[in-house]
Amino acid sequence: MKIETVAIIGLGALGILYGNHFTKAIGKDCVRIVVNKERMARYREQGISFNGEPCDFQYVDETDASLEPADLVILAVKGTQLDEAIETARNQVGPETTIILVLNGISSEEVIGAVFGGEKVVHCVAQGMDALRTGNDVKSVHIGELRIGIDAPEKQDRLDAVAAFFEETALPHVVEADILHRMWAKFMLNVGVNQVLMVKEGTFRDIHKEGPTRNLMIAAMREVLPIAQKEGVNLTETDLENDLAIIDGLTPLGMPSMRQDGIAKRPSEVELFSGTILKKAKKYGLPSPTNQYLYDQVQAIEATY
């Protein structure tokens, strides 16, 4: 199982980052940027660039069923676009295709698995990148790394193939022994940081200092711990402390994606965060008042758009 062709679904900051990286590494003929006709026309006319340099992408129409399925499909969309991305990916996925998602949250893999087969999904956490899309250009200094791993031993061949491909294309990556733990730890961080700063309309500086905003964030994060335990993931106070250390290292004037959504009046990924928490809390009979509060506040903000 060797990966030679890649299909990228979603041309936001990360889609452009990885599209550019792999196109330069293995050539545009082996990298498909899969889009609908309308987007294809727009991208071809306006162009896409990475750090100001035009990207020479191969665009493939999502309805084109003439190509062999891709060896690797990378889903790089926001959670709000997942259903659309599934339709865009359909003609790229065959029995041997491996799928990775560079999305936030812990529920998207289940959704993709239900559609295409869970055996195709290699779990992934994208971290450490600073890619920011403005118009059709992406600015990035740090490519970050992909943390990859599997939730079942029978996927080992697929994991090995993805790791070998990343090695061959010099994409920074780490193979995780316990990827689900890594995903839940990042999820817990996002549940706190993303939602609280959207609701409180702040920057990272507001959660660095002791006070009600930081306390609200920690309370939201703490509600993740018992749910993770019920899901068989041993997330503990130590993980929460580790997350806080990461948070305290964030650029004070920076903002998470949900705060950026609030400013731009875009639908946020609240369903991936408190939306997921509330569903799972209900399933297990656990209280989650902080996430209920944040969920309601975000709904109220989005209702004003």
UniProtKB/TrEMBL annotation:
Any single GO CC term annotated in Swiss-Prot or TrEMBL for this entry: cytoplasm
Cross-referenced Gene3D superfamilies: N-(1-d-carboxylethyl)-l-norvaline Dehydrogenase, domain 2 (1.10.1040.10), NAD(P)-binding Rossmann-like Domain (3.40.50.720)
UniProt domain Ketopantoate reductase N-terminal: residue ranges: 6-132
SUPFAM superfamilies: 6-phosphogluconate dehydrogenase C-terminal domain-like, NAD(P)-binding Rossmann-fold domains
Pathway assigned to this chain's UniProt record: Cofactor biosynthesis; (R)-pantothenate biosynthesis; (R)-pantoate from 3-methyl-2-oxobutanoate: step 2/2
The protein, known as: 2-dehydropantoate 2-reductase
Keyword NADP included in the entry's annotation: yes
Gene Ontology biological process terms, A to Z: pantothenate biosynthetic process
Role, per record: Catalyzes the NADPH-dependent reduction of ketopantoate into pantoic acid.
Ketopantoate reductase C-terminal domain sequence ranges: 178-302
First-tier enzyme category under EC: oxidoreductase
Family, as annotated: Belongs to the ketopantoate reductase family.
Catalysed conversion reaction: (R)-pantoate + NADP(+) = 2-dehydropantoate + NADPH + H(+)
Entry-linked InterPro entries: 6-PGluconate_DH-like_C_sf, 6PGD_dom2, ApbA, KPA_reductase, KPR-Related, KPR_N, NAD(P)-bd_dom_sf
Pfam families: ApbA, ApbA_C
Keywords: NADP, Oxidoreductase, Pantothenate biosynthesis
Enzyme Commission number(s) from the entry: 1.1.1.169
Gene Ontology molecular-function annotations: 2-dehydropantoate 2-reductase activity
